Amino acid sequence: MESKYRILFVCLGNICRSPAAEGILRRMAEKRGLDRFITIDSAGTYAGHSGDMPDRRMQNAAYARGYLLTHRARQVRPEDFDRFDRIVAMDDNNYHNLYRLAPSRQASDKICRMSDFFREHPDWTYVPDPYYEGHEGFELVLNMLEDGCRTMLDQVALMFATGGEAQKNP
Ligand code: 4NP
C-alpha cells in the first residue's frame, strides 16, 4: 500500500474552521486525483463541541461552494502527534496550545500555521474565528482555506511526483 501524507487541521471548537479546511482539502484532492496520497482529519483544542456536526452557518457557506462537511467534532489527542505528519493550526491560540500538548520535540516539529500556506492573503498570519461574525466572516474564512489548501496540494503533488517519502517533513 502507498504511504500517505497525513494532515490534521486544528482550531478551537472543531465546528467552523478546521472541519471546513478538512472538507475543502478532501474535495480539492479528489478533483486533482490526489486523494489516494493523503489522509485528512480535523480536531479542536476545546472539547465543548465534541460530537457536534459543523456549525450550520459554515455548513451552508461551504455547501454553496460545493463542499459537504460531515465531520463530527472531537478534541485533539496526544496520539494525534503520532498519527499525523502535519498538524495545522488556524490561529496563534491553537498554535500555542498544540505546542503545550506536544509530547516531544519531534512532535512539536509537526505543528505549523495555516497562514504559512497563503498566497492570496499575504497580510494574514491566522485564520480569524468566524463564530461571532456574520456571513462575510464565513466567506473570508472559506477564501483563506481554499487559498491555503491549494498550496498544500501543490506541495503534496510535488512530494509524491518526486517519490518524496523522505521529505514528509520538509
Ligand atoms: P472554530 O470556531 O474554532 O473555528 O470551530 C469556534 C467554535 C466555537 C466556539 C468558538 C470558536 N465557541 O466559543 O464555542
TrEMBL record:
<protein>
    <submittedName>
        <fullName>Low molecular weight phosphotyrosine protein phosphatase</fullName>
    </submittedName>
</protein>
<dbReference type="InterPro" id="IPR017867">
    <property type="entry name" value="Tyr_phospatase_low_mol_wt"/>
</dbReference>
<dbReference type="InterPro" id="IPR052995">
    <property type="entry name" value="LMW-PTP"/>
</dbReference>
<dbReference type="InterPro" id="IPR023485">
    <property type="entry name" value="Ptyr_pPase"/>
</dbReference>
<dbReference type="InterPro" id="IPR036196">
    <property type="entry name" value="Ptyr_pPase_sf"/>
</dbReference>
<keyword id="KW-0378">Hydrolase</keyword>
<feature type="active site" description="Proton donor">
    <location>
        <position position="129"/>
    </location>
</feature>
<dbReference type="Pfam" id="PF01451">
    <property type="entry name" value="LMWPc"/>
</dbReference>
<comment type="similarity">
    <text>Belongs to the low molecular weight phosphotyrosine protein phosphatase family.</text>
</comment>
<feature type="domain" description="Phosphotyrosine protein phosphatase I">
    <location>
        <begin position="5"/>
        <end position="155"/>
    </location>
</feature>
<feature type="active site">
    <location>
        <position position="17"/>
    </location>
</feature>
<feature type="active site" description="Nucleophile">
    <location>
        <position position="11"/>
    </location>
</feature>
<keyword id="KW-0904">Protein phosphatase</keyword>
<dbReference type="GO" id="GO:0004725">
    <property type="term" value="F:protein tyrosine phosphatase activity"/>
</dbReference>
